[in-house]
Design brief:
Number of domains: 3
Shape: globular
Oligomer: single chain
Radius of gyration: 30 Å
Structural class: mainly alpha
Number of helices: 28
Order of helices and strands: HHHHHHHHHHHHHHHHHHHHHHHHHHHH
Distance between the termini: 87 Å
Largest sheet: none
């Protein structure tokens, strides 16, 4: 190994779940093995390539990823892969031998493929490698999708064959850190008008600047830097600067970035037009918004795919209502695990009265931590009798960014758990009131009604102040959900209070 070899910074391919590599294959086999000392790298290498001996250092270099797997070993797999098309069983001995290492005993089986397909350890190995494939940027999406199909169809043997062949034949190594970074930058900037130097200046400021960060970012934005303009624009859009959104300022910054084909800048501009956050939401504004949306879509912005689907779902001009097209776009966005696309697919299923599939989509969004979906799933479990499981989803719904929180979850926790308790979840009056107030302050009508009833009872029975009772009465009466039934209920309670006061009953503190 020469000096240049030692100076280059290679990425290790055996220590995390980001690479479908030989090192990670051996690492996972070792993790699954009953006796870790049996799962030696050299022994596993000999099993894969059907050889009797190899230098330990060579195998270690292959596994760490600082050397490419030798051509003669790759050729062994290329030849076996060609034979596999005619002799489907050619890899069975290899995989059974791997299982022997994992379990620490020898196997002799007749129907090897059926045995492999039903073995829990091999299923776990195939699934783990599949999950890694989704993280590896060198693995094509359609390849990972095919692995998923194999697993879903219980074709574990075929799945393992494909995974191991990719590892030996297709996985590129070694990976040099500087080259990988350069490749990532090229991919990011591919369809934009942004220069690499712009990104370099922005990242330098982002990573190194201290107390003058805000000033320096604004100065960088003045030069037309797309990233600086996007950051300042998105901060104004979300209200991070003053505590409330300033859409006019957000627009001016985002426009600079959008004109350089910044994907998300185009998406936010589209959202501002389409949702009426700027201008008047007339046909001209909607057309302008859709222009930015198409641009964001063409640049690969996932959120724009979902928004376009919502426009088809609702028939927002210039698009016409088309549920099939909406579903197609939501499915496309969901391929990138976009939580809101799963939510929209769930809503479409509900419209079709397909509650089973609706729940499956909501569960996918909830798994990604999306608050509304977590509350939705919590509601399902509570209403079907599993209050304990519902509780976990309600808690998950409130554990996130306050801007994306579904505040109904606070109401549900207060109403169904902290008010009276449930199993090991103790009654907690303080938390009951706190969570109802959080929900009410965030426009949850039911929470305001619940608080009115609570303070009514306190006033009638304990003689506490009437101020909070009247405060929530006013909140309820000003809410869009205020209706005749609620009006009648409030009037009845207020008459009861008046009757007691008129009769001279002391109920004031």
């Amino acid at each position: 190994m020469g000096g240049d070899f030692m100076k280059r910074a290679y990425i290790k391919l055996n220590c995390d779940d980001n690479h479908l590599s030989l090192g990670n294959l051996f690492r996972i086999i070792k993790e699954l093995s009953k006796n870790k000392t049996n799962a030696l790298q050299t022994d596993l290498f000999c099993i894969l390539f059907d050889i009797y001996d190899i230098n330990d250092t060579t195998v270690n270099n292959y596994c760490v990823g600082i050397r490419s797997i030798g051509d003669k070993y790759k050729q062994i797999f290329i030849n076996k892969r060609k034979k596999y098309e005619k002799n489907h069983k050619i890899f069975t001995d290899m995989i059974i031998d791997i299982l022997s290492v994992i379990d620490g005993k020898n196997y002799s089986v007749r129907k090897a493929i059926d045995f492999i397909n039903s073995n829990e350890k091999l299923i776990a190995l195939a699934k783990k490698l599949y999950n890694i494939s989704k993280n590896d940027k060198q693995v094509p999406t359609d390849f990972s999708d095919q692995l998923s199909l194999y697993i879903n169809n219980n074709d574990i043997y075929e799945c393992l064959v494909e995974e191991i062949c990719f590892i030996i034949i297709d996985k590129k190594q070694p990976l040099v850190e500087s080259e990988l970074k350069r490749g990532v930058l090229e991919d990011i900037l591919n369809d934009t008008s942004i220069s690499a130097s712009d990104l370099e200046l922005y990242l330098s400021l982002k990573l190194r600047e201290g107390i003058n960060y805000d000033y320096s970012m604004k100065e960088l934005a003045k030069t037309g830097n797309a990233y600086a303009n996007f950051e300042l624009g998105s901060n104004e859009y979300y209200g991070y600067v003053k505590g409330y959104p300033r859409y006019d300022m957000a627009y001016s910054y985002l426009l600079v970035a959008a004109n350089q084909n910044h994907p998300t800048a185009n998406y936010i501009l589209a959202s501002m037009y389409i949702n009426g956050l700027i201008n008047n939401q007339n046909k001209e504004d909607l057309e302008e918004g859709y222009k930015y949306l198409e641009k964001a879509y063409s640049l690969g912005n996932v959120a724009s795919i979902n928004l376009m689907g919502k426009m088809y779902l609702r028939g927002i001009y210039p698009l016409k209502e088309n549920h099939n097209k909406a579903k197609e776009l939501f499915l496309l966005a969901s391929e990138s695990n976009y939580a809101y696309a799963y939510n929209n697919l769930g809503l479409l299923m509900e419209l079709d009265a397909n509650l089973f599939d609706a729940l499956s989509f909501y569960l996918k969004a909830a798994t990604l931590g999306e608050s509304w979906a977590c509350n939705k799933v919590g509601e399902y479990y509570r209403k079907t009798g599993n209050k304990r499981k519902a509780y976990d989803f309600y808690l998950k719904a409130i554990d996130g960014n306050y801007q994306n929180t579904c505040y109904y979850a606070y109401y549900n926790l207060a109403k169904y758990y902290y008010q009276n308790g449930f199993n090991e979840i103790k009654k907690d009056k303080d938390k009951y009131i706190e969570y109802l107030q959080i929900a009410s302050n965030n426009d949850i009508f039911e929470a305001s009604v619940e608080l009115f009833l609570y303070f009514y009872e306190k006033y009638i029975k304990k003689g506490t102040s009437k101020d909070l009772l009247l405060e929530y009465k006013q909140i309820i009466e000003e809410h869009p959900k205020y209706n005749k039934d609620i009006k009648n209920m409030i009037e009845k309670y207020m008459k009861d209070i008046k009757a007691k006061e008129d009769n001279g009953i002391e109920i004031l503190a």
